[in-house]
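Sat 14:20. Reprocessing the chain from the morning session after the first attempt stalled halfway. Input below, unchanged.
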Amino acid sequence: QVQLVESGGGLAQAGGSLRLSCAASVRTFSRFGMAWFRQAPGKEREFVAAVSYRGGSTVYADSVKGRFTISRDNAKSTAYLQVNSLKPEDTAVYYCAADSYGLGSKFTHDYEYWGQGTQVTVSS
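Finished this time. Tokens:
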């Protein structure tokens, strides 16, 4: 069983930055693809960014390209999402997810494990 715990969310002003972390309780973290998704009130969960098991491949939603950066530290069993140039429309609960196939895809159905989410609120 893999447990994922997100942290780093909070309130930020438009144009500001946050760094989200996702700590995984699994020894084989380096085998998992990792991703971040988000869900705003009244909307469906949407893909944000993903990274493959070794970090060699990343993919981003068009809406965050150039502003968000996903990374991972396999020695610390932690994935990160650096969010810059925040916009009010980035307000959402951000979830990290783990995929045992290591692909780091952008599809929710590829991920077996999910964290509880961390709230990001951006004020204008």
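DSSP finds no helices and eleven strands in the chain.
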